[in-house]
Design a protein that fits this description.
By secondary structure, the chain is an alpha/beta fold. The protein has nine helices and six strands.
Length: 218
Amino acid sequence: DKEVQAILRQFEQSPLPVEAFNIFVPSQLKVTGNEVDFDQLKRFVQTALERVHRVGGETIVFGSGGARKLPDSFSQQTGENQIARFLDMVADVAEPLGITIVIEPLYKKASNIIHTVPEAVQMAKKVNRKSIQVLADFFHMMEEDDNLDNIATYKQYIKHIHVSDNYYPPGTGQYPFPRFVEAVKKANYNSRISIECIWDDFDNQVNEALQYVKKQFR
């Protein structure tokens, strides 16, 4: 708590709102497998969400590929049940604070469970809590051949979106942005879209990337 106070003050004083967070659960804190410690997870979640709430955060992305990755030969069904139990516990903390947790489908290189929007929606339905929703990530959808139309098909669950161009700044690759924009508009999505990518030179790249995304949506 003492170490984090200066960081929290910096966030609170930021002229830009700090609305969305990612990298929710550290990889060493397992959500699936035989080493899950739900008491430790609950303590972590309570502390993390209180800090997010303090700086005005509204959305937390549950990607956390290392934390949720199933151990070798571990039961898929058991792993899904563990994730559902974890998210139900998170919802108990998140809902009084007005925070939404969005399940991020990850490509197979990042995790071995929940790879597509329909699979994330299936998990959200399993948990069945107001604060547990779904993220659509353009990069992961492209890598997993996840139909972009799923953004519209499951629009009632999509509460956050990530964009990149093969995980680099939008406009620097070959991703079919017009198709992506069409899918987002078809869903009548009118919430936050975050650029999540690798930056080689943030100060010089960020404005071009932002203007490119805005131009696509015009």
